[in-house]
Description:
mainly alpha; 4 domains; extended; Lambda_DNA-bd_dom_sf; DNA binding
Amino acid sequence: MPKVDPEILKAFGKAVKRARAMHGWDQTTLGRVVKPPVGNSLVSKIEKGQKEALDIRTVGRFRNALDLDESWLDKFLDAEETAESGETRAERDADQILDRLQREGTTEGASDDLLIRLANNFTDGDHKDRETAYTSVRRALAELARNKDIAALAGNADAQFAALMQQIDQLNDDGDFDEAARLLDDEQDRLEQVADLHHKKQLNQDRLRNRPDLAAQRLIADLYRQAPAGGVFWATESLAKKWQDDGDKAGDMFALHVALALAKTNYDKAKGKKALEAAALHT
């Protein structure tokens, strides 16, 4: 059966959100009114048009709860009904994780949209159970809070750089080459600090998206910028060990998956090198 047009999913989501607002309900209340009840994760995904497997039965449940127009059912007549069409185990696990984190007081300052997306990223991912997903969500929230001040630390880098370049040109015009050189050296230090902050922010974003593969690629690219020629292999091995140790200590599955991706990169390099050596021997 054909998939439902993404534009229809988005339009239905907007209709659900609008009707919910007209009733004065939050997502939790709507979830309780739907029969049988559902959690915030499913409500949020539907409202954002992100429930790709949505079928006519689930649409009907929301239509009845919100008294939506019956014409919405016609748009989902050909939608395939699968195990993903209704509320999934991953969505229920995500809601339970968020309930637990809220009881513990670790979600302060984070929006509902952020929390729901974050929890579902990990319960939908390759975590073996809800407990490991919970640990990863909690760690991601902690990293997010820790990295919130990066924007303020970095400042308006482009404007600052442009102003400095004008100052350098003026100093050179005045013949003050030494002062211009000193300012350039200071700017180099600042740019390196900004680059480090940018790198940390990117790694934090990889964690929020549950993409240890991208984090590993980023870490290796950074090693190439820093390590001496021929030293990247051993630097990668050392970095993989560090991420593994950190992951073991904190029960952090994301860190362990990053370590695995780093180790796999080295393994693939070594395997490729042996294959080339073997080919060379037979030529």
